[in-house]
Amino acid sequence: MKTISLLLLLLIVSTAFSQPPNGSKSLIHTQSARTFESGRLEIHTDMNFFTRATEFIGSGTKPAGFTAVNYWLVAGNLTATYGVLDNFDVTLASRLYQDTHYANEYNLPGDIFLTLKGGSFAFANRKMYASLMSTFRFATGEQHNYPFTEYASGALEYSFTGALSYFADPYLPDRSFNAHLNLGWWNHNEASKVLYTFPNGNELKATKNSSELQYAFGAAYPTALFDYRLELFGSAFISQPDEFVYSRENYMYVTPSIRYKTFSFMTVDLGADIRVIGTKDETSGVPQITNPDFDLPNYAPWRVHMGVNLTLLPFTSTAKSEAEVQHDEFNKRVEFFQKIVEERQKSEDVQEELDKLKEERKEAENELEELKQIMEEQD
Prior knowledge:
This protein is of the alpha+beta class. The protein has helices at 2-16, 322-378; strands at residues 41-54, 69-85, 88-98, 112-123, 128-138, 157-167, 178-187, 194-197, 203-205, 211-222, 226-239, 251-263, 266-277, 302-313. The strands form 2 sheets. It has a 12-stranded antiparallel barrel with strand order 1-2-3-4-5-6-7-10-11-12-13-14. It has a two-stranded antiparallel ribbon with strand order 8-9.
């Protein structure tokens, strides 16, 4: 009963506050090039938060107008991924943001993401996989253009991303060292969109469409109970947004994380983002969210992540023993070798057909030669 209560608590908390919409077979920020097999359904949740207490330290006189403030951001995402075909899956995600530092305090609900992913295209003896995905961001949240996180324009945004994955063991990819590389282009599509409204009703509209290059690299070392993972991700603007956009600077984070395999149908993620690029503040023309004395840039210096991943389909009612897991893995290896044998047999059959054609062609050439001789003798 305590275990069930803990699972419900983790799911409810993570659903209330979660993170970017990474779907099938992904790390926290990095997508794998593999997709879900047909009929597989999973739910992913992730809470990430940042907070900073700003107080005056020292015995001197406080600056004029100084007040102690706690700045914080809690963000969330509830993600569902379904395998439509063995090489194609769909991810639908709803993002929630707490404390956007505007009058509405939080977006509930936030924006909706839709990702279409074609992948699991194997090569290099099935050690390498490739995929291509497209993501659309629908602006259903009340507020956009808020600080401490990536830029949200409030328009219909979209991206195209390619992914490459490497698995040390092609027979047991989920239980071997693996590494993944993502490279994508994101268009904020915000030209003429109102990005800021002053209390007196004056508005600031975007003068152009901005776009950025998004990148991520992640690696995982699996063990029986834990996956130890490390990621590097960030963004570099190709066309920078207007100066009144809060998150208009480039950024980069390093993310160490761990995945605990609690049950066959459930895993728990815990990690932290550590900022390595993004300390500048290039925003102007709008009121500053923070006091300039606090030296707090537009991107949070750190964020903590906690997430839960649940497999709903195919349904497994009980946790599998180590022997059962090994049995399943053995069956997978047998199936893999069977495919290799079948492919080899097909190639051998093709070779036999080619040999037969060569023989028939040779016989036809001999017959033609004989006909020529007979015609020459008649002449």
